[in-house]
Structure formats: C-alpha cells, structure tokens
From TrEMBL:
This is Actin-like ATPase domain-containing protein. Residues 569-589 have a biased composition (Low complexity). Pfam families: HSP70 (PF00012). CDD domains: ASKHA_NBD_HSP70_HYOU1. The keyword Methyltransferase does not apply.
Length: 885
C-alpha cells in the first residue's frame, strides 16, 4: 500500500508512444524477486501463484512435470538429483573454480564440464543442461507471471547482478535472458539498484555519502554511493544523482553459507546418534536437512535455541536434536571478520573513512541474521546504521525504476546513475618488431582501472603495418578458478587501408580502436579504423608528433545503455582521445617520405581520413554462447514447453472423456421412461452404447495413463456417434412446434397480403393509378404459397405417425428453409414502392422483358424495413409484417 501511494507520482505515461511493460528481475542464489512497470498497473513486486513476494530460484523435474519456486525446492527431498537450486553459483563458472566446488557441497546435482569451459548439470534421465538453460526456464516462468499481471506480452527486462560479476558472468546472464525469450534492456549492479530505491522518495539538501551494505544469500556487497539533488539550470527541474565511489565484496559468505554450516551441525548430530550411519551419503536425507537448517536458522534468529525435528530423515529413522544459537555462532566464528571486511574494502576503494559516511544502509535477506547485524554494529556506530530500505525488495524495485527510465517509454522520477567498474582491466598486444630478427615485445596498459566509469569509450592508437590482436585481461584472477583473459580482438585489413591512406597523401597514418565499457559493464571493441591526415604543410611537424608519443587515456561520455556485447559496429564514432603508446617507432615510415611528398602534391584532398577495419572478437577462455547455441537452447526450451502443453492437453482429453463416460452411464442406467434419452432411443441403440461404454471404461482404466490425446478423442467420438441420433431426435421433437408455427405464420401473412394487394390493384386499375405489383407477380406469389402449404400439410401429416424413438421424416431445418423462401418472396413484393405514374409503363415493360432486372430494382429499395418503424430483421420476433398488413 505504501509503495503504491509513493510511486503513483513517479510513473507517468509519455503520450503518443506505444507502451510496453518493463520487467525487473533480481535473480538471487536463493530467491528471485521480480517487478513489473506498466502504466495503470500498481508498481509492486510480482507475486507468484501462491501470492508469495519472493520466489525460490529453483526448477525441478518430476516425470513429465516441471516445477518452479517453492514447489521445485520442496521436491529436492524426493528427487534431489532432479532439483536445481542455487544455480547462481554455476554462472559461467569453470568446473574447477571455487563457485562450482562450493555448489557441489550444497547440491546433490551432478556436474560436468561443458564444451564452453563452463559447467553443465545432469538430470537423472542422463540429459545435460547448461545453467543458462535452467536459469532461462526460470526467467521464462517469471516472464509468464509478468504477462498475467500486464495482460500482454512482456519482452523488456532489466536484471540485477552483483557489481563484482565478471564479463563472463554478465554474458551468461545475458545469454539466459535471450534464451528465455526476453530482451535485455540492461544489467544493473544490485547495490546501485538499492541506491536508486533509496533515492526514489528522497531529496538531498546537500550531497550525502552512504554505504549500501547488501548481505545476500551468496555474497556480501558493499557499495559506497554519493547522493545529491540537482536542479537543471535551464528547466528548473530537479533530479537525483547517484555516483558510486567504491565497492567491496566477499563472494564466499552469505545466508547460504550459514545454512550450510547449520546443516553440518545437524548432520553431525545425526551421525553421532546413529553410529555407523553417515547421513552425508544420503542425498534425500541431506536435502531434508537443508530444508530443516533453513527453518531452524529462522527460529534461532529470534530464540536462543530451537528444536530440530525431521520425521523419517533416512533409513526410516526420525531425527530430533536441540540446537543452540551459540553453537551456530561458534561454528561461524571464522566468518565474523568477513561479515564486515567488504565495508572497509569499499571505503578504502572510495578513499573514504567511516566518518565521511552518513549511514550504512543494511539490505539483503541475510542482513537480518543476528550474527551479521552484531558484526556490523561492532564496526559501525549505532546512529550510522540505517534500515531505511526494504531488505528483500529494494534492489528489484530500484532496478524496475531504472529499467523504466532507460526504456524511455515512461516518464519516471529523474535519477541519474554514474556507476563504476570493480575489476582492473588491461589491454595488451605484441608490438611490431623494429627489426626483422628482434623478438616481439608485449605491451600492456591498464585500460580501464577499477573505478573507471561505465558507459564510456576509450580510443587506443597504434602504429601498425599489419593485422594484429588486442587482448583484454583482468589484471588479477577475478574469482578463484576463473581465467583472466576476457577477450581477444583481431584488427584486420590494416595493410590495405594504410596503403590507400598513403596513396592519398596521408602522412604517418595510424590505427585507432575504440573500446567501449558499456553501462551494463561489458567491454568490447566497437570499431577500429586506419586514420591519417592529409595536409599541405611540411612533414617535419607530423614526424615529431609521431616519434614523440604520448600515453594519456581520455574518457568520453556515452549515452549507450544497451549492452553492446562484443558486437562489432562499423560506424566510426569520433572520440577525442588517444592512448597512443609509441612502442612501435617505425623506421620505414621515414624511408619513403619523398614518395609521399609527391603523392601529397598530386592530390588536393586535405583533412582527416578514416578507413574502417575489420574487428573480430575471439573468446579463448569462457566464450559466451554463440547464436547457434542460443538458438538450440531456445528450441530445447520450446520443446519442453511443447511437451508440457501436449501433456496438459492429454490430461484434459482424458478428463473430458472420463466425465463423458460417467454422464453416459447415468443416462443409460436411468430407468425413468419419460427421460428424453430413454424416450428417444431404441433398445438396440442403448445396448450398443452400453457395450461400447463398458469397453471404454475398461480401456481407460487399463491404458488411459499412456493414451495419446488423439486416441482419447477418437474413443469419445465413437461413443458420441452412437449417441448422436438419439440426441437429434430429441432436439427435433423440441424444435418441431416452433418450426411449424413459423411455417404456418408465413402462410398466413402471405395469404393476408395477397387478399389485400389484389383488392388494391383492382381499385387502382379502376382509377388508372399506378400499382406496385402486376397481377402476374401476385399470381406468382400465390403459387409459391400453395406449394408451401401443400408440402407442409403432407409432411406434417406423415410426421404425426413417427414415434419418438424413430428418426423424424421431416427436418425442422428444412421447414425453416422452405418458410424462408416464401418469406423472401413476400418481402420482395411487400417492400415495393409505388412507382411514379410517368414511369409506370416503362417499368411494366421492363418487368416483362427481364424479370431479374425488376427483382434488382426491388432490392434497391430498402429491404426488410417498414416505413416509419425501427428496422427489425424479420423472422421469429414480434415485429413481423402481419402487424402492419
Ligand atoms: C552441456 O550442455 C549444453 C547445453 O545443453 C550441451 O549442448 C552440451 O552438449 C553439454 N555437454 C558438453 C560437454 O558441453
Ligand atoms: C573524510 O574524513 C576525514 C577525517 O574525518 C577528512 O579528513 C576528509 O577530508 C574526509 N573526506 C571527505 C571526502 O569528506
Ligand atoms: C583501397 O582502395 C581500393 C581502390 O580504390 C579499393 O578497392 C579498396 O577497397 C580500398 N581498401 C580499403 C581497405 O579501403
Ligand atoms: C406461435 O407463435 C405466436 C407468436 O409468436 C405465439 O403467440 C403462439 O403461441 C405460437 N404457437 C405455438 C404453437 O408455438
Ligand atoms: C392497400 O391500400 C391501403 C389503402 O391505401 C393501404 O393502407 C394498404 O397498405 C394497401 N395494401 C397493401 C398490401 O399494400
Ligand atoms: C436480364 O437481366 C440480366 C441480369 O441483370 C442481364 O444479364 C440480361 O442481359 C438481361 N436481359 C435482358 C433481355 O435485358
């Protein structure tokens, strides 16, 4: 409710644009939180079908069923190898990396190395799945929940990621998004998203610095952020600015590690009680203990001790043990310094001290754990600790607002973000050797040091003659077991381009490459080109510049907010910077200067010239999924969806068939002679139905579970075919009186009309007035009428002797059709307008010549309408022609 009132004013519709909803997802190791931004829909977190505000990050397979959320997580106690939780640890992770080692400690799932150097999981049916695919299933499930709320398709999504995520992990998240059928608007660091949430409802009279201390399930993230409120000098509009200044983190502690240690305590307790048995060898038992550990941890948050109790934990043995909070705390004693270290690291990286900070804002589900709160309380004075955001939901709500603002489809509260990079990234390449025999020298430069602003570009300048490769590396191993090499980019077409530039008279052309650090934290080479300036002045100045060299990096702001994930763009956007490392002093440049001079004199073109080069990214360590792999994964997910749909159709067909059988059995066994089914059926028909009915029951019981949808359908059709004549008879009996009434009524109308009309034309003839009809026309109608009357009386007579369990000799459908013919004939004449007396003869002549022409003229008059009355279609209603006649 509070949220609703608060944000109503933050979200306004931008007029005249097609609006689409924006989904925000906070994909945690334990829980997913999601939110939908759509004008007209209250801004809140998405609820799952059980109205839960947070959804367990789990997917499980149980025979043909796929389960999500809590349903999936609970299945772990029965199908531990087919229940996939905590997949966040597997994000882009090589099999021998720390996150995967940790995953295998807490999960019963089998892991295997994938061909992409990441880790696959295996289902009990032997099929292998990438974590991207399994995460994509969950994202698709969230998408579906969002669509239920939005009432329309949802495509755009913004996802929170820990700031410490490497490019590998960011790619894996983006791949999962694509596989799920969503479109990634942006990734946002989760601490930054919380900062957005904090800034949503606040203005800052003077700049304030806060630390967002986010204790999640799988890690602790500390974000130092500066908040200020600025007024636009031109428009006078105010907006908030969030600038992140530093980060600290620990990827090994969080809620899950405490759960794990508590489970160890419970497992030890069991093993101590039952000597010779090791609960750790029992996957189901361990899954049950995991669930129990989570429950006991909750109790211990508020109590000093808890009773742990699991019925039939394993080997039919019940488990019961008292756990003290102090026992858990002792087991976590070594974690205590880790609980606060990220805070100090973040401050240090921002160059600040605790005294510079207004508050430390606690967030994240695990921030409620007393152990962690106590650690923070010891490090931070009480008046500097703030609980001003919703620990669970701040990140997703902040992300949603940011997503809406960058989608540019909504007018949202103006909150600008300036975020920074967490890991040092260096670029390196081999310098061209100055002499043929010297060994190439490797040159490295920290292109984007930690703390670099995201959403910027840098231009690197090279003196090269041939194609070359730029390597991008993390300066340090970003996660134990992860590679440092992020990307290799080949720049090709150099020699050709340089020749052309030189031919055009450019002196000392160079190669420039633009490296983009996107808002979402992706590094890519967006373009490269050969660059030269053609000038009339002497070479001397140019050459000086060339050999002098410089190595300054300059940043240029970019408004890019769609992650250019290693895409290659051909457009050469001009950036004003250079990172030239003159490591390649080229002697040969000078040797042909005379020639160049001549060239230059020939051509009159002056100014800078750029020739685009080919940029090819290569991934030698953990490649993101290729387009083909993503397509295959999406097809695979679709196949699962299709299978599930087929299954639910099959179940529906089975249920429909079964209830049909029961209904039919009721009809058959009802002895009441007056019931329509009895009345309209013959004994032989009932016997045939009964026989097939019993067979069908038997078939359904024996083979219904395995039956195809089409078989179920055909079985039902076979029975319906037998039942159909009986139903038909009954329907005909019901419909007959109405049909007869209708036929008779049109007879009567026609007769009345004819009497009246004949009288009128006779009178008109006497007075030499024009008539609407000729005698012939009226005779024609009379003929139709007689035929209809004759047919009706003949068949009605025959029908009288037909028994209720015999097929009717006259169908009501035919009666209606015949009455319709008569009705139309009558209408045609009835609607005729009085011809003008001058035209009279002509009309009559034409009528004689060509009857169809007359009919057309008749139809040109408004048909089925009586003058001065509301238009009512003629038929069975009350407003019929006879009322007027
Ligand atoms: C891993 O999973 C992917 C995606 O499902 C699959 O294509 C691949 O064959 C699996 N195994 C290996 C060794 O990569
Ligand atoms: C941070 O606090 C220290 C000591 O209190 C002070 O010297 C320093 O100027 C402050 N820095 C900033 C950026 O406010
Ligand atoms: C160089 O110039 C030639 C001829 O004008 C042209 O065909 C070729 O595409 C150019 N190469 C590059 C790399 O621009
Ligand atoms: C025939 O229709 C008229 C007018 O709708 C109605 O008054 C009359 O009761 C009907 N008769 C039968 C037998 O349905
Ligand atoms: C016959 O003439 C009378 C008087 O003009 C008129 O009210 C009536 O509608 C006419 N009948 C037909 C069938 O046109
Ligand atoms: C009669 O009418 C039909 C259809 O309007 C037309 O094709 C035909 O030529 C007409 N015949 C004469 C004799 O006018």
């Amino acid at each position: 409710m509070r949220i609703l009132i608060l944000f109503a004013s933050l979200l306004a519709i931008v007029p005249n644009s097609v609006l689409a909803s924006v989904l925000a997802i906070d994909y945690g190791a334990d829980y997913i939180k999601a939110s939908l931004m759509k004008p007209g829909v209250p801004f809140d977190v998405l609820l799952n079908k059980d109205s839960k505000r947070k959804i367990q990050s789990s997917v499980a397979f149980k025979r043909g069923d796929r389960l999500f959320g809590q349903d999936a997580a609970y299945l772990a106690t029965r199908f531990p190898s087919d229940t996939f939780s905590h997949l966040k640890y597997l994000t882009a992770a090589p099999i021998d990396s720390d996150p995967v080692k940790y995953f295998t400690k807490i999960s019963a799932v089998d892991v295997k190395p994938s061909s992409r150097s990441t880790t696959n999981v295996t289902r009990s049916d032997g099929t292998e799945w990438s974590s991207e695919e399994l995460v994509a299933m969950q994202l698709a499930y969230i998408k579906h929940l969002g669509e239920l709320v939005a009432g329309e398709k949802v495509r755009d999504v913004i996802i929170t990621v820990p700031a410490y995520y490497t490019q590998f992990e960011r790619d894996a998240v983006a791949d999962a998004v694509e596989i799920s059928g969503l479109r990634l608007l942006a990734l946002i660091n989760d601490g930054t998203a919380i900062a957005v949430n904090y800034a949503m409802s606040r203005t800052f009279a003077k700049p304030e610095i806060h630390v967002i201390y986010d204790v999640g399930a799988s890690g602790i993230r500390a974000t130092v952020a500066e908040f200020s409120t600025n007024t636009d000098a031109k428009t006078g509009a105010t907006g908030n600015q969030i600038t992140t200044l530093g980060y600290g983190y620990d990827r090994t502690v969080g809620g899950i590690e405490i759960d794990r240690r508590l489970r160890e305590i419970l497992a030890d307790a069991f093993n101590t009680k039952h000597k010779g048995k090791d609960i750790r060898k029992d996957k189901r038992g361990m899954a049950k203990l995991w669930k129990e550990a989570q429950r006991v941890k909750m109790i211990l948050s508020a109590n000093n001790e808890a009773m742990s109790q699991v019925e039939s934990l394993a080997w039919d043995l019940d488990f019961k043990s008292k756990v003290k909070r102090s026992t858990l705390e002792a087991a976590c004693a070594d974690l205590e310094p880790k609980f606060t270290q990220p805070l100090y690291d973040a401050l240090a990286s921002a160059g600040l001290e605790l005294s510079n900070i207004t508050t430390v804002i606690l967030a994240g589900g695990a921030s409620r754990t007393p152990m962690i709160q106590n650690a923070v309380k010891q490090a931070v004075p009480a008046d500097q600790i703030s609980f001003n955001v919703n620990a669970d939901e701040a990140a997703v709500l902040g992300a949603a607002l940011h997503g809406a603002s960058i989608s540019r489809q909504f007018k949202t509260k103006n909150i600008k973000i300036t975020d920074i990079l967490v890991h040092d990234v260096q670029a390196s390449y081999f310098a061209a050797s100055s002499t043929p025999n010297s060994r190439p020298r490797s040159i490295s430069t920290t292109l984007f040091p930690a703390g670099s602003k995201v959403g910027t570009k840098k231009t690197m300048t090279f003196k090269r003659k041939d194609d070359f490769i730029i390597n991008f590396d993390y300066k340090k191993e970003p996660v134990p077991g992860f590679p440092t090499r992020m990307l290799e980019v080949e720049i090709a077409g150099v020699a050709d381009a340089l020749t052309n530039l030189t031919d055009s008279g450019a002196i000392d052309p160079v190669i420039k490459a633009t490296v983009t650090l996107s808002e979402s934290g992706f590094i890519s080479v967006s373009n490269a080109f050969a660059y030269g300036e053609i000038k009339d002045d002497s070479l001397t100045g140019k050459l000086k510049g060339l050999f002098g060299g410089s190595s300054s990096n300059e940043e240029s702001d970019s408004t890019e907010d769609i992650p250019p994930r290693n895409t290659v763009s051909a457009s050469a956007s001009a950036t004003s910077s250079s990172s030239s490392d003159a490591a390649t002093p080229s002697e040969s440049a000078a040797s042909d200067k005379d020639e160049k001079k001549k060239e230059k004199e020939k051509k009159k073109v002056t100014g800078p010239v750029e020739i685009p080069l080919t940029v090819t990214p290569q991934f030698t360590t953990i490649p993101p999924m290729s387009v083909e792999q993503k397509k295959a994964a999406r097809d695979r997910l679709r196949a699962v969806d299709a299978e599930e749909n087929a299954k639910s159709r099959r179940e529906e067909a089975r249920n429909t068939f079964e209830s049909y059988l029961y209904r039919l059995r009721d009809l058959i066994s009802d002895e009441d002679k007056d019931k329509p089914f009895k009345k309209c059926s013959q004994a032989s028909e009932r016997e045939a139905i009964e026989k097939l009915l019993e067979e069908s029951f038997e078939w359904l019981n024996d083979r219904g579970d395995l039956a195809e949808t089409s078989q179920l359908l055909n079985k039902r059709i076979a029975l319906e075919t037998l039942e159909k004549p009986i139903i038909h008879r009954y329907q005909e009996i019901e419909a007959f009186p109405q049909a007869l009434n209708n036929s008779q009524m049109w007879n009567w109308h026609t007769r009345m009309f004819l009497t009246d009309a004949r009288q009128n034309i006779t009178e008109e003839a006497k007075l030499d007035l024009p008539s609407k009809w000729t005698k012939e026309e009226l005779d024609g109608l009379e003929k139709s009428l007689r035929e209809h009357e004759a047919w009706l009386s003949e068949w009605v007579e025959k029908q009288k002797s037909v028994k209720s369990n015999e097929d009717p000799v006259i169908e009501t459908r035919e009666m209606k059709a015949r009455a319709k013919v008569l009705e139309q004939h009558l209408q045609r004449l009835y609607n005729r307008k009085v011809p003008k007396s001058v035209k009279k003869k002509k009309v009559v002549v034409e009528e004689k010549k060509n009857e169809s022409k007359v009919e057309q003229e008749g139809e040109e008059e408004e048909p089925l309408q009586y003058d001065g009355e509301e238009q009512v279609p003629l038929g069975e209603g009350e407003a019929r022609p006879h009322d007027e006649l």
